[in-house]
Amino acid sequence: QVQLVESGGGLVQAGGSLRLSCAASGGSFSNYGMGWFRRVPGKEREFVAHISWLGGRTNYADSVKGRATISRDNAKSTVYLQMNSLKPEDTAVYYCAAQMFLAFGRTEQNYNYWGQGTQVTVSS
Description:
The protein is mainly beta and 124 residues long. It is built from no helices and 11 strands. It starts with a strand and ends with a strand.
């Protein structure tokens, strides 16, 4: 069973950048497809990005496409989400998620393991 811990959130001005990290432990990280989701209070958690367990396939929500890059470092058991040109509407709690041997996953139901989240606040 894998444990996930997010970091890198914070307060940033619109147009700025952040890199979120998610460190995994307790499992064979390279066997896990990894995703990033986010939730705004009062709304459902929404998909942001996914990277396959083999690392060769990524996909993004339309709302972040062209501004976000998901990547993974299997040697460090860490997945990253680089967010550029941040907008106030990117303000949310960002969650890391994992599922073994997941090649493609855009919904919460695709993932069994979740981190506690990290807050990202973008000021206008």
